[in-house]
Design a protein that fits this description.
It contains nine helices and twelve strands. The protein starts with a strand and ends in a 9-residue tail after the last helix.
């Protein structure tokens, strides 16, 4: 298994470590956006390495997803889990780094989002020594093999620190953090539990920022909808999500519309019977929704069937 050591801003780290309750996800943003991030796979460890003057690993989490998105969407999705109290403060931190490369300022930019699930923050004095060969001029970070040498040492020490009473972590731990025994054995991959912010970004990007039914692209009027509600046991999982225009989302949650397991949009007769209206929505009835490009991001037919059978009230479909 691979891990990644990310150079980490101390203000970002200390802000998140002090949050209560402890966060179950954080957004490790990259000010310049950058390209695709392929250093680790979802579920592999991402280590928070503090820069000068600390030069130590102060925590870690599980890499969940990488996207390049508008800074405004990063704030709307994660809020204070971006490591700042306000959007303006987050922008000031981003712009501090962007200004060094002559990039445009003013909040009109895209940032790279490394979404980290189930982070653990170590107390002062419990930090782990960085790799002995880590070069101080590395800007973003570096990958490392966790099966031997320095990588294995760091992984095992981080697991030990995660068990300490003063470690800051979310209430429900990941199985990989709780391996018993004096040594932790071979590292293994764990599917990260997505938090609400990662879920929102992942679904928005999967549908390319457009409503799956209407094609509307204006982000302020788009919602990420759970197919099976979170309160009903549905997960923050891309396959349990749809990107819908706000009005369609409300109708979906209230059972006036649904999407079949085959991907067809259906409108209940209830809408006309109860409100004597709904022409806008009946125009979409029977059409196939626009699906994500990647098959692994497409809605789960089982979840869609659950919505059809437990939320949607068909009565009789329009003809």
């Amino acid at each position: 298994m691979q891990g990644f050591i990310g150079n980490t801003d101390y203000d970002w780290f200390s802000f998140l470590r002090d949050l209560r309750p402890p966060p179950d996800e954080v957004n490790f943003w990259q000010p310049s956006g950058g390209g695709a991030f392929r250093a680790v796979a979802p579920g592999e460890p991402f280590f928070f390495r503090l820069k000068k003057p600390h030069y130590a690993i102060a925590g870690f989490g599980l890499f969940a997803r990488h996207e390049i998105i508008p800074a405004s969407l990063a704030w709307e999705s994660f809020g204070r889990l971006n490591g700042a109290e306000t959007f303006d403060e987050m922008c000031r931190r981003i712009e501090k780094y962007r200004a060094r490369s002559g990039a445009e300022l003013g909040g009109q930019y895209r940032v790279g989002c490394l979404m980290i699930s189930q982070p653990v923050f170590f107390a002062d004095g419990d930090w782990v020594a960085e790799p002995s060969d880590f070069q101080k001029n590395i800007v973003r970070g570096k990958g490392l093999d966790l099966s031997e040498g320095e990588g294995l040492r760091i992984w095992e020490e981080c697991l030990e620190r995660a068990q300490a009473p003063n470690a800051i972590r979310a209430a429900q731990p990941t199985a990989s953090y709780d391996a018993p025994g004096e040594r932790f054995g071979e590292p293994f991959l764990v599917r990260p539990r997505l938090g609400q912010g990662t879920f929102r970004v992942a679904v928005t990007q999967a549908y390319h920022g457009a409503c799956a039914v209407s094609g509307e692209h204006s982000l302020p009027v788009l919602d990420v909808a759970h197919i099976q509600g979170y309160a009903e046991g549905g997960a923050h999982d891309v396959q349990n999500g749809l990107l819908l225009r706000t009005d369609i989302h409300r109708l979906f949650d209230r059972g006036y519309v649904t999407v079949t397991p085959e991907g067809r949009f259906e409108v209940s007769r209830r809408l006309k019977d109860e409100w004597e209206n709904g022409k806008t929505y009946y125009a979409f009835d029977g059409r196939s929704i626009t699906l994500p490009t990647r098959s692994e991001d497409r809605p789960d037919p089982t979840a869609l069937r659950w919505h059809n059978e437990n939320v949607f009230e068909r009565r009789s479909s329009v003809g």
